[in-house]
Design goal:
The complex is a heterodimer. Helices cover about 60% and strands about 5% of the residues of chain A. Chain A has 16 helices and 4 strands. In chain A, a hairpin with a 2-residue loop joins β3 and β4. In chain A, α3 packs across α5, α3 packs parallel to α9 and α12 packs across α14. The longest helix of chain A is centred in the N-terminal third of the chain and has 21 residues. In chain B, the strands form 6 sheets. Chain B has a 4-stranded antiparallel sheet, with no helix packed on it. Chain B has a 4-stranded antiparallel sheet with strand order 6-8-7-12, covered by helices on one side. Chain B has a 3-stranded antiparallel sheet with strand order 16-13-17. The chains are: A mainly alpha, B alpha+beta. The structure holds iron/sulfur cluster. Iron/sulfur cluster (SF4) binds next to α11 and α15 of chain A.
């Protein structure tokens, strides 16, 4: 297993990374590297440099910490979540090349400790719930669960670590009065941010949609990442609700891992194939249902009267 | 309910609260809510210790009292964001919705069966929670509350708790995926009774059905030899030891699968997933029934009409102001007709008064 600075560079949130940083002063160069790191996150660029010298490695680790300071100062959800998604994907790429011991060490940073029973790997249920994604594949009902232990594969374990990293990075402590170089770095970065289509989201927000759709739009507005099923469901719903591809693509640009090309293709595909909008039962199996509307399909929302809608929204139906 | 009845109920409640035994872990970290007109008229209350809480109940005697499932740094602060969330018990609310004021009481036994399965199969079995972390309480009315206080589950967020509810309720359960055809000639390979989760439950449920009512699955299994041969296969995960076709077997298991989830978990009110919810304080009184939300040691033996009544009190003469159907309490009670006047044991009198069906009779004998 790799230790020391080599490990710390790849896993800059680890305890050994924090230890390696002690005594390192923030300077222009590190802040510039942090800005680079954040800009790469916006582009979804997961590439990493080979670093041989200890001093370079330390700076690289420091750039992660500085990036977090900038984010803590800016409190911009879009930036923070893009950073979290990109960094966690980078970690996954690293893990794919590591030996078992190293993967275990990274997992242990988040309290993910697997055991084994009957030749199968398993982890405890609360940890599984915390770090599994909202993908039907990971739904508890589709899992083998015995005595508080959930069976997982080695690949799934790495996926849980990725999610743990993402969640960890998403929670950024507020930095109230940062050093001036952080402040000016933040300013510079914001100027270069892509402008999100706030006009479109405003329109849709005012619109009148079932709770499951409203919640996804809410999450999107906060730049949270949405699982694949949620995106497909939302696209098919919005198409049925009469939005055009430009509008939907604009909406999805709020997502932290947005790619215009991919989104356009997918939305177009859903439209061409005339995907049915998922029924409530299906939305439920995706884990996306969040109310009891008793309408069978989210599309039937529009046939309810205002009184009933209000009651459902307020949970008093 | 008139002023006489309210006064009477308050007196009975207050004298119970003087001696009641509460077991509220970390009482100082919980938010409390009380209600008189509704279940909750006021919330964001908090108490430094059990004695303060008792004094409050004796002096103010609300009809309902509930506490947060969550623990907070500042339980009395509002709005919610200022409380400083520290974690929450995992709580399940099981109840029955039935027609009419009195419709649900006939089905309490069914909810109790569900509680037993929820605790034994899901919470202790699948989730692996230790028994000492589970508290079951009567809700005081139409159901039960299960409180899980395992520290490992304390920090779970709302979505994660919802996932547990969905699991318990079998949302998205597709039992046909438990089966596959393997080998040559093809064998139907499926779950074994020794497995955990829904897989094991399906196998065990099938065997139980075969043993308890052999002909239900297919007339074939009325014959002991056929049946035993089929069961011997299931025990090994081989579901082909029968002349039935594979897809036919899987299809016929539908009713077995439908009974595996716990259906009376109430998700509408969101007690499990909404971390800001308040839940009736165990061992407090439910103001719609006068029954105690009793902490239950042995649920299999629990009878609310005996174990959850407020002890003591002299019989009271009441007059019914509407018709009431017969109810099976610890004894058959009723039916009553409007204007019936009679003496009832205190807990029954209280029950019908709080339900708004009877008033204290002023007729002199
Ligand atoms: S019931 Fe249907 S429409 Fe309502 S939130 Fe659930 S999935 Fe959406």
């Amino acid at each position: 297993m790799e230790e020391g600075l080599g490990f710390a560079v790849k896993y800059p949130f680890s305890a050994s990374a924090k230890a390696a940083l002690s005594g390192t002063e923030l300077n222009e160069r590190i802040v510039d590297m942090a800005i680079e790191r954040l800009k790469k996150a916006l582009k979804g660029d997961k590439s990493v440099k080979m670093l041989l010298h200890d001093s370079d490695r330390k700076e690289e680790i420091a750039s992660y910490a500085a990036a977090r300071m900038i984010l803590g100062h800016l409190r911009n959800n879009f930036l923070t979540n893009s950073f979290a998604v990109n960094e966690s994907k980078k970690v996954h790429d690293h893990l794919d090349k590591e030996d078992v011991k190293t993967v275990d060490a990274v997992a242990a940073e988040f309290g993910i400790v697997s055991g084994s029973a009957g030749g199968k790997m398993d982890i405890d249920l609360p940890t599984y719930l915390k770090f599994s994604t909202r993908n039907p594949h990971y739904r508890l009902i589709n899992r083998r669960l015995i005595c508080g232990r959930v069976e997982i594969t080695y690949d799934e374990k790495k996926r849980l670590v990725e999610e743990a990293v993402r969640k960890h990075i998403e929670i950024i402590p507020l930095v109230k009065d940062p050093p001036d170089i952080i402040k000016s770095a933040g300013k510079k970065l914001v100027e270069e941010l892509p402008k999100t289509e706030s006009r479109i989201i405003a329109n849709v927000k005012e619109g009148d949609h079932p709770p499951c759709v409203m919640r996804l739009l809410e999450e999107m507005k906060k730049h949270q990442n949405l699982p694949h099923q949620a995106r497909v469901f939302l696209s098919s719903y919005l198409i049925a609700a009469g939005m055009n591809d430009d509008e939907i693509t604009g909406l999805f640009s709020m997502l932290p891992d947005f790619s215009e090309k991919v989104t356009r293709y997918q939305v177009g595909h859903i439209r061409r194939k005339e995907y049915n909008v998922a029924s409530c039962a299906t939305v439920m199996t995706y884990g996306l249902c969040c109310a009891v509307c008793k309408i069978g399909s989210p599309l039937n929302w529009h046939s309810l009267d205002d009184y009933r809608k209000k009651a459902i929204r307020e949970g008093t139906a | 309910m008139g002023a006489n009845e309210v006064d009477f109920a308050r007196k009975v409640f207050a004298s119970y609260y003087g001696k009641a035994e509460f077991r509220i872990p970390k009482i100082e970290q919980r938010e409390f809510g009380i209600g008189n007109q509704k279940k909750i008229d006021a919330r964001h209350l908090n108490f430094g210790n059990a004695q303060e809480f008792r004094n409050y109940l004796c002096n103010n005697t609300p009809m309902f009292v509930s506490h947060s499932t969550s623990y907070y740094d500042f339980p009395g602060a509002s709005p919610m964001q200022k409380k400083g969330w520290r974690g929450a018990d995992l709580v399940f609310d099981l109840d029955i919705h039935a027609e009419g004021k009195y419709g649900a009481y006939a089905h309490l036994g069914r909810v109790r069966e569900d509680v037993i399965r929820l605790v034994n199969e899901f919470i202790l079995g699948d989730f692996g929670v230790k028994k000492e972390h589970v508290v079951v309480a009567f809700s005081g009315n139409r159901g039960y509350h299960v409180h899980v206080r395992d520290p490992a589950y304390l920090a779970l967020g709302g979505d994660e708790r919802r996932e547990l509810v969905d699991y318990i309720m079998g949302q998205g359960l597709n039992y046909t995926e438990f089966f596959s055809l393997e080998g040559r000639p093809a064998k139907l390979i499926g779950p074994k009774p020794s497995e955990g989760g829904y897989r094991g439950r399906l196998a065990r449920g099938t065997i139980r059905l075969l043993e308890e009512s052999p002909g239900t699955l297919s007339r074939l299994f009325s014959k002991e030899k056929e049946r035993n041969f089929f069961i011997s296969g299931i025990n090994e995960g081989n579901w082909s030891r029968t002349s039935l076709k594979s897809n036919d077997i899987v299809e016929r298991l539908k009713p077995v699968a439908a009974n595996l989830p716990v259906n009376s978990v109430d998700t509408d009110v969101g007690v499990t997933q909404d971390l800001s919810k308040l839940i009736r304080v165990p061992n407090s009184i439910h103001g719609d029934t006068g029954l105690i939300a009793r902490i239950i040691d042995d649920i299999a033996k629990f009878n609310p009409w005996i174990d959850a009544r407020i002890p003591g009190g002299a019989p009271i003469k009441v007059r019914f102001i509407e018709d009431v159907p017969a109810i099976e309490m610890d004894e058959a009670v009723g039916p009553f007709k409007k204007d019936d006047e009679l003496e009832l044991p205190q807990y029954q009198a209280l029950f019908f008064m709080l339900k708004g069906s009877a008033i204290i009779s002023d007729a002199k004998d």
